[in-house]
Amino acid sequence: MSEIHDVVIVGSGPAGYTAAVYAARAQLNPVIYEGSITAGGALMNTTDVENFPGFPDGVMGPDLMDNMRKQAEKFGAKLVTDDIVEMKLDGEIKTLVDGSGNTLQAKSVILATGSAYKEIGLTNEKRLSGRGVSWCATCDGFFFREKEVAIVGGGDSAMEEANFLTRFASKVVLIHRRDTLRASKIMADRAMANPKIEFVWNTEVIDVLGAESMTGLKLKNTVDGTESERNFDGLFVAIGHVPRSELLTGQVNLDAEGYVEVVGRSTKTNLAGVFACGDLVDHTYRQAITAAGSGCQAALDAERFLTGH
Ligand code: NAP
Description:
seven-stranded mixed beta sheet, five-stranded parallel beta sheet
């Protein structure tokens, strides 16, 4: 408790680890809280990352994160596999409490808690979670060998997960609420060319059916309002993400959707010495490379702030 750290980074993933690499190389002895179960962030649940510069043959998401982690550690970042459960971020010295009950003090804090899977918001979606309903094909696809599964969403995540699921499932039915995809052309083309994927357009999932485990979905056509039921063994929800900013409510300024507001093109929040980066601030790009870039910016902003104080 007596030690006052220059910088504590909350959250791993490309933003947190990159901030740690830069802060460590600037001799700021950063402490990075990686999370107790989510260390490495969203990329830990992906397979091939084909668009991270420097890897012409692609790289597995978990390998990329492991390398970033090692790089941060090599330069002296202190890695803690725990969560921050409480923060007091105003004032000159910030106070943070971790999941083991330790209290830390810091002159600056970099927030990089990323985002969580978005849910459709149905009662039975939650009830049957882990019993047919999943948000992570990489984690749970294996359980659906030779089964028929549905996937909801029209973005890159849905395309990627649908393709991945065809390794296991006998059929993947992609349900999208509109008649055009949001996904990038290359990802959409790949999914459309996959003979095991069927596209169901203009359709919403309005209920998940099943008592002990999921047996099917209740669907609604968004054009003519007609409702129908269809049997499925599993449902993968891939409709985007929400920022993980619950702990920050009432502390730093958040926008209407819960993203941390930053000043201009910087990573500065409304509180002096508190910086935010990665998916936590990003409505638009949300790529591993943009998150890493903003983690770098946050470390540079923190370094300048500390020099000025
Ligand atoms: P996204 O681009 O925001 O797409 C979310 C999709 O889910 C949209 O098609 C949206 O429909 C649909 N949706 C949202 N809420 C819904 C609801 N309540 N019910 C039904 N459908 C709903 O999210 P994402 O696919 O997770 O991608 C996020 C970012 O990560 C993007 O920038 C993407 O490019 C990136 N990413 C990249 C890769 C890659 O390998 N390059 C892989 C995965 C993700 P509408 O289209 O109607 O809004």
